[in-house]
């Protein structure tokens, strides 16, 4: 059949090929852009100019005798948070209330934008939490690892756990 003699309502084979080619190209571009966004989100890569949703006020509960918690409060202030420090001897009870297992007790507990953040969690992980807004109670870094914000000593690899339903799961490794 001659391309110039197509029936009414039908497209010419060349035009259809061009349309499909353009459509495939646009779908491919959208796929690459979407994939880059997903990869950026899962690796914790964010624009340094962006502000986390809900950043602002932090209430940090700490043991009255603990000085490293004051160092963490200063670290949060340096990163743009207004921090109120409340000394308490009930950190274990508070941890239980928020679903932190006794075996993963943090040094202190912070309430940030509707989330619980246990321990000396680095700012980039807190920022990721506030950007992603996952349906969890919060995140936790057990103990008092050296080299973390507010703690002296050499930096080490950290595993931060998500607090939610069921057993704690790894939220981030930094």
């Amino acid at each position: 059949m001659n391309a110039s003699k197509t029936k009414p309502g039908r497209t010419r084979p060349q035009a259809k090929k061009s349309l499909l080619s353009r459509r495939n190209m646009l779908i491919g571009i959208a796929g690459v852009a979407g994939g880059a966004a997903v990869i950026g989100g899962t690796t914790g890569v964010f624009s340094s100019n962006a502000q986390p949703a809900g950043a602002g006020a932090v209430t940090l509960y700490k043991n009255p005798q603990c000085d490293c918690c004051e160092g963490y409060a200063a670290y949060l202030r340096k990163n743009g948070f207004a921090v109120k420090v409340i000394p308490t001897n009930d950190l274990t009870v508070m941890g239980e209330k928020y679903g932190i297992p006794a075996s993963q007790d943090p040094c202190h507990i912070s309430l940030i934008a509707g989330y619980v953040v246990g321990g000396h969690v680095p700012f980039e992980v807190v920022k990721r939490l506030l950007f992603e807004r996952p349906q969890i109670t919060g995140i936790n870094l057990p103990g008092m690892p050296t080299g973390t914000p507010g703690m002296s000593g050499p930096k080490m690899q950290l595993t931060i756990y998500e607090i939610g339903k069921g057993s704690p799961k790894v939220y981030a490794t930094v």
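Residues 52 and 173 are 20 Å apart (CA to CA). Residues 15-20, 28-54 have pLDDT under 50 and may be disordered.
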